[in-house]
Amino acid sequence: RPTSTSFIGLGRMGYQMALNLFSKQHLNANEASFIVCDAVPEAAQAFCSEFTSQYPEAQISIASTPAEAAFASSKIITMLPSSPQVKSVYNESIIPTLRKLHATSSADTLCIDSTTLDVSVAREVAASVVDTGAQMIDAPVSGGVSGAKAGTLSFLVGGTEECFIQAQPVLSLMGGRIIHCGPSGAGLAAKICNNLVLGVEQIVVAEAMLLGQSLGLNPAVLASVINSSTGGCWSSSTNNPVPSALPDKSPPCERDYEGGFATVLMLKDMGLASHVAEQYKSPLPLGEAAKEIYEEVAKTPDLANKDFSAVYRFLQQQSG
Ligand code: NAD
Predict the structure, then answer these.
(1) Which of 75, 191, 268, 306 is the catalytic position?
(2) Environment class of residue 28 by beta-carbon count within 10 Å: exposed (0-12), middle (13-18) or buried (19+)?
(3) For the segment 31-73, what is each residue's pLDDT rounded down to a tens digit?
(4) Best mutation site among 7, 80, 117, 267 for ligand 1 pocket (most ligand atoms within 8 Å of CB)
(5) 4-183: CATH superfamily
(6) Does the model's ipTM exceed the 0.85 cut?
(7) Which of 74, 107, 251, 298 is the most exposed place for a label (fewest CB within 10 A)?
C-alpha cells in the first residue's frame, strides 16, 4: 500500500510549500518518505539538494513522471501553472495510475490540487479521480511566495466534508488558515473572486503611487498614509510597487520585481474571472479593464515574468 507524500510542481510556490510540508512531516514522523516531480528536472534536483542538506537522513526521491510519483503515494499535492498542465498531469498520468492502483489494492489516495485553474476543468478532473476510487480536493492558495515560505498561506478548499477533514493536517503544515468553501470547485471560485480584487487593487495602487509622486509626495510618506487609511490593502502594505516605499525590503520591487507572482499568472487569473463572468452573465467592468492592462504589461519587453506589481513600471513608461 503506497505511503509516501508526493509534491508535483516545484515552481515559485510549490518549492516553498514542499519545503515546509516535508520538513514538518519529517520532524513529526521520522519514517515519512517523500517524492518530488517537476517537468524541469533541475527544479526537482535543486529541491532534493536543499532538503537533504537540511535533513540528510530523510527519505526523498525524484519521480521522472507524475505517474511514477502517484504509484508510490498516499497523498499527492500538485502546484502547476494552470488548466492545461492540470489536465495533462491528471488525465494522462495520475488518473490511469490511480485506476490501476485502486483496482488491485486497498489504496486510499488523496489528491490535493493547489493550482489556480478553471473551475469547470477542476470539477471534471476531480470527478475522474473520484471515479478511480481515490479522493480529490481543490485547494488554491492566497498569500504569495512570502506566505508559502513562511507557511502562512490561506487554503481555500472545495470538496466533501470528509476530504476536507482528511486534508486538514497536511494543509496545516503549509498554511495558517484553511477554509472549507463548499463542494468541488468552490475553493477555486473563491480564489478567482479574491484575485479579481487583487488584480484591480494592484493597478490602482500603482496609479496612486505614481500620481502622488507627480504631486511631489515622498513615496514612503504616501505609502504610510494609504496603509493607515481607508485605501490600505495588501497591494500597498505588503506588495507596494515602489522601491523604498515600505520600511522592509521584502516586496518584489526591491529585487527588480523578481520572485513574486508573475504578470502572466495574474493575466491568467483575470482571464479565469472573465471567463466565468461571461458564463454566468455577471458584470465585470473593472475586471475587464484590468485584464486589458495586464495584457499590455505582459507584452512589454521583460515584464511578462516579473511580479505583477511591475504594472507600476509599465505605467511609469507610459507617463514618459
Ligand atoms: P511557476 O510557474 O513558478 O511553477 C509551476 C511549476 O510547475 C514549474 O516548476 C513547472 O516546471 C512545473 N510544471 C509545469 N508543467 C508541469 C508538468 N506537466 N509536470 C510537472 N511539473 C510541471 O508558478 P507558481 O508561481 O509557483 O504558481 C503555481 C500556481 O499557484 C499557479 O496556478 C498560480 O496562479 C498560483 N499562485 C501563485 C502565487 C504566486 O505568488 N506565485 C500565489 C497564489 C497562487
Answers:
(1) 191
(2) exposed
(3) 689 999 999 999 999 999 999 999 999 999 999 999 999 999 9
(4) 80
(5) NAD(P)-binding Rossmann-like Domain (3.40.50.720)
(6) yes
(7) 74
